[in-house]
Amino acid sequence: MRQTLLLAGLAASASAFAPAPNARPDTALFGGARGVATTLEGKKETVAQVQGLLDSSEMIFTVPASGITVSQMQTLRRALPEGTTAKVVKNKLMNRAISGTDYETAGEMLKGANMWFFIEEDIGGSVKSWNSFVKEEGLGETHTILGGNVEGTNYDKAGVVAISKLPSKKELIAKIAGGIQAVPTKVARVVKAPGIKVARAIKLAGEEGGDN
Question: Which of 18-22, 39-43, 68-72 has the lowest mean pLDDT?
Answer without folding.
Answer: 18-22
